[in-house]
Amino acid sequence: MSYSAAELEQLNADLREKSPVEIAQWAVAQAKNPIVTTNFRPYEAAILFAATQAKPEIPVVWCDTGYNTPNTYRHAEEVIALLQLHIDLYVPQQTAAHRDVVMGIPQIDDPRHKVFTEQVKLEPFKRAMANHKPDVWFTNLRKGQTAHRDNLDILSQGADGVLKVSPFYYWSDAQLDTFLAEHNLPNEHKYFDPTKVLENRECGLHA
């Protein structure tokens, strides 16, 4: 699947008027092998709901760093059961307990932070993408989250040709709160990403 810059611009303009579920349905209709990724951070139930409304059996890739809060794990279990998600779990090749002894969680200015990020987030993600080989990838990216994400749109295409679909790209937290309430979906704000440190820092998967 490949679109020119002009085609993407027109598609994004057309999809801007659609609901997130309609956007997901459009994307699934174009796809041969769609996936949705999640880390069960705040508002993730929204993208999981939209993707599974479009394709109930869609693979849900969960890359678990091993450093999630107890709240996040309880939230994940609740959403998995509620939406009957087809979870494919990917974890680092070294346990968090082992890493805590030899490295801990390095600060952002520590040279080991790059190695840490590769181990707990990038390597499991690359392994997941290599196994699934998706042509459409649903994410919950939104405008205003980071400087890099401000340059994307509902649809964006990476150098690998995978079409990244972010149905809630233009939505605010308030709009998402309403969406979750309307669909009786849970949310959880006690979330920790050990690779980002700063909330507005890019995590590495979307750069």
TrEMBL record:
<comment type="pathway">
    <text>Sulfur metabolism; hydrogen sulfide biosynthesis; sulfite from sulfate.</text>
</comment>
<protein>
    <submittedName>
        <fullName>Phosphoadenosine phosphosulfate reductase family protein</fullName>
    </submittedName>
</protein>
<comment type="similarity">
    <text>Belongs to the PAPS reductase family. CysH subfamily.</text>
</comment>
<feature type="domain" description="Phosphoadenosine phosphosulphate reductase">
    <location>
        <begin position="37"/>
        <end position="187"/>
    </location>
</feature>
<dbReference type="InterPro" id="IPR014729">
    <property type="entry name" value="Rossmann-like_a/b/a_fold"/>
</dbReference>
<dbReference type="Pfam" id="PF01507">
    <property type="entry name" value="PAPS_reduct"/>
</dbReference>
<dbReference type="InterPro" id="IPR002500">
    <property type="entry name" value="PAPS_reduct_dom"/>
</dbReference>
